[in-house]
Amino acid sequence: MEEIDAESSRQKTKPFLRWAGGKIRTANFLEEHLPQSFTNGNRYYEPFLGAGSLFFRMNTSKATLSDNNKDLIECYKAIKKRPDLIARYLKQHLSNNCKDYYYKMREKYNVSNPSITKAALFIYLNKTSFNGIWRVNKEGFYNVPYGYKEPPSLPTKDDLLNLSNILSKAKIIHKNYKEAVKDAKEGDFIYFDPPYPPLNGTSYFTHYTKEGFDKKNHAELASVAKMLNRKGCYIMISNADVPYIRYLYKDDFYIHELEVVRLIRADGKRYKVQELVITNYEV
């Protein structure tokens, strides 16, 4: 088992979002466990995109990025299309930022249609919310409280232009993970990073979409991974270290352990927890 030190984690391109369960702290470990035979001639899939930490680490010219969170995907598309305009809106949000302004913008966000303006709001709310959580209620409305009292660190125009350049090579789609990988072929590489099951009764579980992701969903994901394994794809999966997850992948997969500091409880404190990186190839 390897312990991940947040201070030693490095990134080639910094993700622009805060995301619960994000892989900034584990990016080095993931990079060390990439399939050695994967080349840029094949396609990389990341069907639970989130903050995209591994994608931004990889130098791949063929990528399909997807997520079941429509607003997240619309934000990525907007950065790809108009990083300059998003930078202008973020500058306005930063100059007005305070608790009252946050709640006004949250209300505006929840009644807005997809647009460049809403994409900038997505980033602003994400960077100023409590602990960077993205949570919606059963109706699909974003409901995270205000978290920052100091000016947030929003991506600059240069940051956004760089992100746009990287994303210009990627196919960005709003689909569930099953649909997103159905065209994957032998030699392609798929990285699954689903919402984790709770570690215990005090785990801080968040809903990234109104549908959630339960035990049945994890079993279905394991079935998809096994199907892709039979097709000859390279597969990497991040997940919590709980008996049920180990059981799902005990055959035909290699299980690697690591420790990482995460926010896992509602008291706002961070704890060391053990996670799994599961592959269908030896490292």
TrEMBL record:
Return the EC number. 2.1.1.72
Protein known as: site-specific DNA-methyltransferase (adenine-specific)
Q: Which GO terms describe its biological process?
A: DNA restriction-modification system; methylation; mismatch repair
**Swiss-Prot/TrEMBL catalytic activity:** a 2'-deoxyadenosine in DNA + S-adenosyl-L-methionine = an N(6)-methyl-2'-deoxyadenosine in DNA + S-adenosyl-L-homocysteine + H(+)
Q: Signal peptide location in the record?
A: none
InterPro entries membership: Ade_MeTrfase_dom_2, DNA_methylase_N6_adenine_CS, M_m6A_EcoRV, MeTrfase_D12, SAM-dependent_MTases_sf
Q: Name one Pfam family in it.
A: MethyltransfD12
Keywords attached to this Swiss-Prot or TrEMBL record, sorted alphabetically, are: Methyltransferase, S-adenosyl-L-methionine, Transferase
Tell me the GO molecular function terms: S-adenosyl-L-methionine binding; sequence-specific DNA binding; site-specific DNA-methyltransferase (adenine-specific) activity
NCBIfam families per the UniProt record, alphabetical? dam
Q: Which family does it belong to?
A: Belongs to the N(4)/N(6)-methyltransferase family.
- Organism equals Candidatus Methanoperedens nitratireducens
